[in-house]
Amino acid sequence: MQKVKSPSLAKWLISGPPLLYLLIFFAVPTLIMIFSAFRFPGEYGGLMPLLETNAETGAREVLINWQNWQDFLTLENFSRFFEDGVYVELFIKSFWYAGLTTLICIALAYPLAWLIARSPKKYRDLLVLLVILPFWSNFLIRVYAWMIILGPQGYFAMTVNSFLAWFGIGPQQFLFTHFAVIVVLVYVHLPFMVLPLYANLEKHDMALLDAAQDLGASAWQRFWRITWPLSLPGVWAGAALVFIPALGMFAVPDLVGGTDGIMVGNLIKQQFLDSRDWPFGATLSIMLTASVLFLAALATLISRKGKS
Protein backbone atom coordinates (compact mmCIF):
# COMPACT_ATOMS: atom_id res chain seq x y z
CA MET A 1 0.00 0.00 0.00
CA GLN A 2 1.42 3.39 -1.06
CA LYS A 3 2.02 5.82 1.76
CA VAL A 4 0.35 9.21 1.59
CA LYS A 5 2.76 12.09 1.96
CA SER A 6 2.23 14.33 4.94
CA PRO A 7 0.31 17.50 3.94
CA SER A 8 2.32 19.51 6.43
CA LEU A 9 5.58 18.43 4.77
CA ALA A 10 4.29 19.47 1.35
CA LYS A 11 3.18 22.79 2.79
CA TRP A 12 6.62 23.49 4.24
CA LEU A 13 8.36 22.44 1.04
CA ILE A 14 6.30 25.02 -0.85
CA SER A 15 6.31 27.87 1.65
CA GLY A 16 9.69 27.16 3.23
CA PRO A 17 12.04 28.66 0.60
CA PRO A 18 10.12 31.98 0.26
CA LEU A 19 9.83 32.20 4.04
CA LEU A 20 13.55 31.53 4.45
CA TYR A 21 14.32 34.16 1.79
CA LEU A 22 12.19 36.78 3.57
CA LEU A 23 13.75 35.87 6.90
CA ILE A 24 17.34 36.21 5.68
CA PHE A 25 17.03 39.21 3.37
CA PHE A 26 14.25 41.21 5.07
CA ALA A 27 13.69 40.26 8.71
CA VAL A 28 17.34 39.94 9.73
CA PRO A 29 18.47 43.22 8.04
CA THR A 30 15.50 45.00 9.62
CA LEU A 31 16.48 43.75 13.07
CA ILE A 32 20.09 44.82 12.45
CA MET A 33 18.84 48.27 11.42
CA ILE A 34 16.69 48.57 14.54
CA PHE A 35 19.60 47.54 16.76
CA SER A 36 21.91 50.00 14.98
CA ALA A 37 19.47 52.86 15.62
CA PHE A 38 20.11 52.50 19.36
CA ARG A 39 23.92 52.31 19.03
CA PHE A 40 26.60 54.95 19.44
CA PRO A 41 28.53 56.11 16.36
CA GLY A 42 32.13 55.01 16.05
CA GLU A 43 35.06 57.37 16.45
CA TYR A 44 35.78 57.22 12.70
CA GLY A 45 32.23 56.66 11.58
CA GLY A 46 30.06 53.58 11.39
CA LEU A 47 29.11 51.94 14.68
CA MET A 48 31.01 51.95 17.94
CA PRO A 49 32.74 48.54 18.05
CA LEU A 50 31.58 46.10 20.69
CA LEU A 51 34.73 43.94 20.46
CA GLU A 52 38.43 44.59 19.86
CA THR A 53 41.33 42.35 18.98
CA ASN A 54 43.95 41.79 21.68
CA ALA A 55 47.36 42.51 20.16
CA GLU A 56 49.06 39.87 22.35
CA THR A 57 46.62 36.95 22.16
CA GLY A 58 44.80 37.83 18.93
CA ALA A 59 41.47 37.11 20.65
CA ARG A 60 38.42 39.31 20.39
CA GLU A 61 37.76 41.03 23.71
CA VAL A 62 34.64 42.83 24.88
CA LEU A 63 35.02 46.61 25.03
CA ILE A 64 31.93 47.39 27.06
CA ASN A 65 30.29 46.37 30.27
CA TRP A 66 27.35 44.24 29.23
CA GLN A 67 25.82 44.59 32.68
CA ASN A 68 25.05 48.23 31.94
CA TRP A 69 23.03 48.63 28.72
CA GLN A 70 23.79 52.35 28.63
CA ASP A 71 27.36 51.48 27.64
CA PHE A 72 26.28 50.46 24.15
CA LEU A 73 22.61 51.47 23.73
CA THR A 74 21.24 55.02 23.62
CA LEU A 75 18.12 57.00 22.76
CA GLU A 76 20.09 60.04 21.64
CA ASN A 77 19.47 59.34 17.95
CA PHE A 78 15.69 59.46 18.37
CA SER A 79 15.96 62.53 20.61
CA ARG A 80 18.03 64.24 17.93
CA PHE A 81 15.36 63.48 15.34
CA PHE A 82 12.47 64.95 17.34
CA GLU A 83 14.38 67.87 18.86
CA ASP A 84 15.76 69.19 15.56
CA GLY A 85 12.85 70.53 13.53
CA VAL A 86 14.84 70.30 10.28
CA TYR A 87 14.42 66.54 10.12
CA VAL A 88 10.71 66.66 10.87
CA GLU A 89 10.23 69.35 8.22
CA LEU A 90 12.12 67.22 5.72
CA PHE A 91 9.84 64.27 6.49
CA ILE A 92 6.79 66.48 5.98
CA LYS A 93 8.17 67.75 2.67
CA SER A 94 8.88 64.20 1.54
CA PHE A 95 5.33 63.15 2.41
CA TRP A 96 4.05 66.16 0.50
CA TYR A 97 6.09 65.22 -2.57
CA ALA A 98 4.94 61.60 -2.40
CA GLY A 99 1.30 62.53 -1.79
CA LEU A 100 1.21 65.08 -4.61
CA THR A 101 2.89 62.59 -6.95
CA THR A 102 0.26 59.98 -6.05
CA LEU A 103 -2.66 62.35 -6.68
CA ILE A 104 -1.27 63.48 -10.04
CA CYS A 105 -0.66 59.87 -11.05
CA ILE A 106 -4.26 58.98 -10.19
CA ALA A 107 -5.57 61.92 -12.23
CA LEU A 108 -3.43 60.99 -15.24
CA ALA A 109 -3.63 57.20 -14.99
CA TYR A 110 -7.38 56.81 -14.47
CA PRO A 111 -8.54 58.03 -17.90
CA LEU A 112 -5.64 56.22 -19.58
CA ALA A 113 -6.45 52.95 -17.81
CA TRP A 114 -10.13 53.41 -18.69
CA LEU A 115 -9.23 53.98 -22.34
CA ILE A 116 -7.11 50.82 -22.44
CA ALA A 117 -9.76 48.74 -20.64
CA ARG A 118 -12.49 49.85 -23.07
CA SER A 119 -10.38 49.52 -26.22
CA PRO A 120 -10.90 46.54 -28.56
CA LYS A 121 -9.14 43.43 -27.32
CA LYS A 122 -6.78 43.33 -30.27
CA TYR A 123 -5.31 46.70 -29.24
CA ARG A 124 -5.14 46.22 -25.46
CA ASP A 125 -1.90 44.26 -25.39
CA LEU A 126 -0.22 46.89 -27.56
CA LEU A 127 -1.44 49.73 -25.35
CA VAL A 128 -0.27 47.96 -22.19
CA LEU A 129 3.09 47.36 -23.88
CA LEU A 130 3.39 51.08 -24.58
CA VAL A 131 2.75 51.80 -20.89
CA ILE A 132 5.58 49.54 -19.72
CA LEU A 133 7.89 50.46 -22.60
CA PRO A 134 9.91 52.98 -20.50
CA PHE A 135 11.01 50.10 -18.26
CA TRP A 136 13.03 48.74 -21.18
CA SER A 137 15.60 51.51 -20.75
CA ASN A 138 17.79 52.23 -17.75
CA PHE A 139 16.26 54.31 -14.97
CA LEU A 140 19.17 56.76 -14.76
CA ILE A 141 19.22 57.28 -18.52
CA ARG A 142 15.56 58.33 -18.39
CA VAL A 143 16.27 60.75 -15.53
CA TYR A 144 19.24 62.22 -17.42
CA ALA A 145 16.93 62.70 -20.40
CA TRP A 146 14.63 64.77 -18.21
CA MET A 147 17.62 66.82 -17.07
CA ILE A 148 18.21 67.71 -20.73
CA ILE A 149 14.51 68.45 -21.31
CA LEU A 150 14.17 70.67 -18.26
CA GLY A 151 17.58 72.30 -18.64
CA PRO A 152 17.92 75.93 -19.72
CA GLN A 153 18.82 74.87 -23.28
CA GLY A 154 16.06 72.27 -23.50
CA TYR A 155 13.10 72.67 -25.82
CA PHE A 156 10.62 72.70 -22.94
CA ALA A 157 12.34 75.54 -21.07
CA MET A 158 12.98 77.54 -24.22
CA THR A 159 9.37 77.18 -25.41
CA VAL A 160 7.85 78.12 -22.06
CA ASN A 161 10.21 81.07 -21.57
CA SER A 162 9.47 82.31 -25.08
CA PHE A 163 5.77 82.19 -24.27
CA LEU A 164 6.27 83.99 -20.96
CA ALA A 165 8.31 86.69 -22.69
CA TRP A 166 5.15 87.78 -24.53
CA PHE A 167 3.72 88.78 -21.14
CA GLY A 168 6.88 90.48 -19.94
CA ILE A 169 7.85 87.66 -17.58
CA GLY A 170 11.53 86.89 -17.31
CA PRO A 171 13.02 83.46 -18.03
CA GLN A 172 12.24 80.78 -15.47
CA GLN A 173 14.44 77.94 -14.30
CA PHE A 174 12.85 74.47 -14.29
CA LEU A 175 15.78 72.22 -13.51
CA PHE A 176 16.83 71.91 -9.85
CA THR A 177 13.40 73.02 -8.61
CA HIS A 178 10.42 71.47 -6.83
CA PHE A 179 8.64 71.41 -10.17
CA ALA A 180 11.34 69.21 -11.69
CA VAL A 181 11.16 66.75 -8.79
CA ILE A 182 7.39 66.35 -9.09
CA VAL A 183 7.47 66.02 -12.88
CA VAL A 184 10.11 63.29 -12.87
CA LEU A 185 8.54 61.46 -9.92
CA VAL A 186 5.22 61.37 -11.78
CA TYR A 187 6.94 60.18 -14.95
CA VAL A 188 8.78 57.39 -13.14
CA HIS A 189 5.80 56.08 -11.15
CA LEU A 190 2.90 56.61 -13.58
CA PRO A 191 3.01 53.05 -15.02
CA PHE A 192 2.68 51.65 -11.49
CA MET A 193 -0.67 53.44 -11.23
CA VAL A 194 -1.91 52.59 -14.72
CA LEU A 195 -1.40 48.82 -14.51
CA PRO A 196 -3.44 48.04 -11.35
CA LEU A 197 -6.18 50.44 -12.46
CA TYR A 198 -6.34 48.76 -15.87
CA ALA A 199 -6.47 45.30 -14.26
CA ASN A 200 -9.41 46.47 -12.14
CA LEU A 201 -11.35 48.43 -14.77
CA GLU A 202 -11.10 45.62 -17.30
CA LYS A 203 -13.19 43.37 -15.03
CA HIS A 204 -16.10 45.80 -14.63
CA ASP A 205 -19.46 44.63 -15.90
CA MET A 206 -20.66 47.16 -18.46
CA ALA A 207 -24.22 45.96 -17.93
CA LEU A 208 -24.25 47.89 -14.64
CA LEU A 209 -23.57 51.16 -16.47
CA ASP A 210 -26.21 50.35 -19.08
CA ALA A 211 -28.76 49.63 -16.35
CA ALA A 212 -27.92 52.90 -14.58
CA GLN A 213 -28.31 54.79 -17.86
CA ASP A 214 -31.70 53.17 -18.45
CA LEU A 215 -32.74 54.36 -14.99
CA GLY A 216 -31.88 57.95 -15.91
CA ALA A 217 -28.42 58.31 -14.34
CA SER A 218 -26.15 60.87 -15.96
CA ALA A 219 -22.59 60.11 -17.05
CA TRP A 220 -21.19 61.67 -13.88
CA GLN A 221 -23.63 59.74 -11.67
CA ARG A 222 -22.72 56.48 -13.40
CA PHE A 223 -19.06 57.13 -12.81
CA TRP A 224 -19.37 58.32 -9.21
CA ARG A 225 -21.93 55.73 -8.06
CA ILE A 226 -20.71 52.66 -9.98
CA THR A 227 -17.30 52.92 -11.68
CA TRP A 228 -15.42 54.76 -8.94
CA PRO A 229 -16.51 52.52 -6.01
CA LEU A 230 -15.74 49.37 -8.01
CA SER A 231 -12.31 50.70 -8.98
CA LEU A 232 -11.22 51.61 -5.43
CA PRO A 233 -9.21 48.38 -4.95
CA GLY A 234 -7.17 49.31 -8.03
CA VAL A 235 -6.81 52.89 -6.79
CA TRP A 236 -5.54 51.73 -3.38
CA ALA A 237 -3.12 49.25 -4.96
CA GLY A 238 -1.78 51.87 -7.37
CA ALA A 239 -1.49 54.48 -4.61
CA ALA A 240 0.59 52.10 -2.51
CA LEU A 241 2.85 51.24 -5.47
CA VAL A 242 3.41 54.95 -6.14
CA PHE A 243 3.45 56.55 -2.70
CA ILE A 244 5.86 54.19 -0.92
CA PRO A 245 8.66 54.20 -3.56
CA ALA A 246 8.24 57.95 -4.14
CA LEU A 247 8.60 58.62 -0.41
CA GLY A 248 11.99 56.93 -0.19
CA MET A 249 13.30 58.08 -3.59
CA PHE A 250 16.75 59.68 -3.52
CA ALA A 251 18.06 59.47 -7.10
CA VAL A 252 15.45 61.78 -8.64
CA PRO A 253 15.74 64.61 -6.05
CA ASP A 254 19.52 64.29 -6.15
CA LEU A 255 19.71 64.64 -9.95
CA VAL A 256 16.93 67.10 -10.80
CA GLY A 257 16.04 68.71 -7.47
CA GLY A 258 19.30 70.16 -6.24
CA THR A 259 19.58 71.34 -2.66
CA ASP A 260 15.99 72.63 -2.53
CA GLY A 261 14.51 69.32 -3.69
CA ILE A 262 16.20 67.08 -1.14
CA MET A 263 13.99 64.36 0.39
CA VAL A 264 14.37 62.00 3.32
CA GLY A 265 15.95 59.36 1.08
CA ASN A 266 18.76 61.78 0.28
CA LEU A 267 19.26 62.46 3.98
CA ILE A 268 19.49 58.75 4.77
CA LYS A 269 22.03 58.24 1.97
CA GLN A 270 24.01 61.20 3.25
CA GLN A 271 24.13 59.84 6.79
CA PHE A 272 25.34 56.42 5.68
CA LEU A 273 27.77 57.36 2.90
CA ASP A 274 28.93 60.93 3.53
CA SER A 275 28.64 61.62 7.27
CA ARG A 276 29.08 57.91 8.14
CA ASP A 277 26.71 58.39 11.05
CA TRP A 278 25.17 54.93 10.75
CA PRO A 279 23.13 55.05 13.97
CA PHE A 280 21.31 58.22 12.93
CA GLY A 281 20.90 56.93 9.38
CA ALA A 282 19.34 53.78 10.82
CA THR A 283 17.09 55.94 13.00
CA LEU A 284 15.86 57.87 9.97
CA SER A 285 15.23 54.59 8.14
CA ILE A 286 13.24 53.20 11.06
CA MET A 287 11.17 56.37 11.33
CA LEU A 288 10.47 56.26 7.59
CA THR A 289 9.43 52.60 7.76
CA ALA A 290 7.23 53.23 10.79
CA SER A 291 5.54 56.16 9.04
CA VAL A 292 4.80 54.05 5.96
CA LEU A 293 3.40 51.20 8.08
CA PHE A 294 1.21 53.65 9.99
CA LEU A 295 -0.19 55.13 6.78
CA ALA A 296 -0.77 51.64 5.34
CA ALA A 297 -2.67 50.62 8.46
CA LEU A 298 -4.68 53.84 8.34
CA ALA A 299 -5.55 53.32 4.67
CA THR A 300 -6.62 49.73 5.40
CA LEU A 301 -8.84 50.93 8.24
CA ILE A 302 -10.46 53.59 6.05
CA SER A 303 -11.08 51.13 3.22
CA ARG A 304 -12.69 48.64 5.61
CA LYS A 305 -14.97 51.31 7.03
CA GLY A 306 -15.92 52.28 3.47
CA LYS A 307 -17.00 48.71 2.73
CA SER A 308 -19.04 48.30 5.94
From TrEMBL:
The organism's place on the tree of life at top rank: Bacteria
Disulfide bond keyword on record: no
Domain ABC transmembrane type-1 residue range list: 91-299
Gene3D superfamilies: MetI-like
Major site of localization recorded for this protein: membrane
Family according to the record: Belongs to the binding-protein-dependent transport system permease family. CysTW subfamily.
Protein name: ABC transporter permease
Organismal lineage: Bacteria, Pseudomonadati, Pseudomonadota, Betaproteobacteria, Neisseriales
